[in-house]
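FOLDING PROBLEM:
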Amino acid sequence: MKKDQVPQDEGNLSKNNVRELLYATDEQGNYTTALSKGWEPKSIALSNAMDDISERMELAKADFKAGKSSPIVYFMEASKMDLTILASYVGMWQWRVKRHFKPSVFAGLSDKILQKYADAFDIDINQLKNFKAD
């Protein structure tokens, strides 16, 4: 894309006066950098992704309140992680992390394991232990 064609659509980035650095070509065809306020298709995709995450967080809260899942599921969604990413952050097999999604298994986890999750979610261990889903 040419430097004068870099999108400048008002979007999620422009709300906070943030600009995105993109590569473009100048008049001579050489690569250079340009700042963009945003691009409408990208803003729409980002907004849709955030809506999906919010829905999954609400579902995780409802499942926690119903006794179907542990707080790990909620914090995983809130941290924009999936099972694969969370397992790598806590240094455990995916099947083991998935097992910790069960409330009965979560209740028996040691503080050492809970601390690994708290560190991955960047929260205090007490927030994980005393999650209320309000």
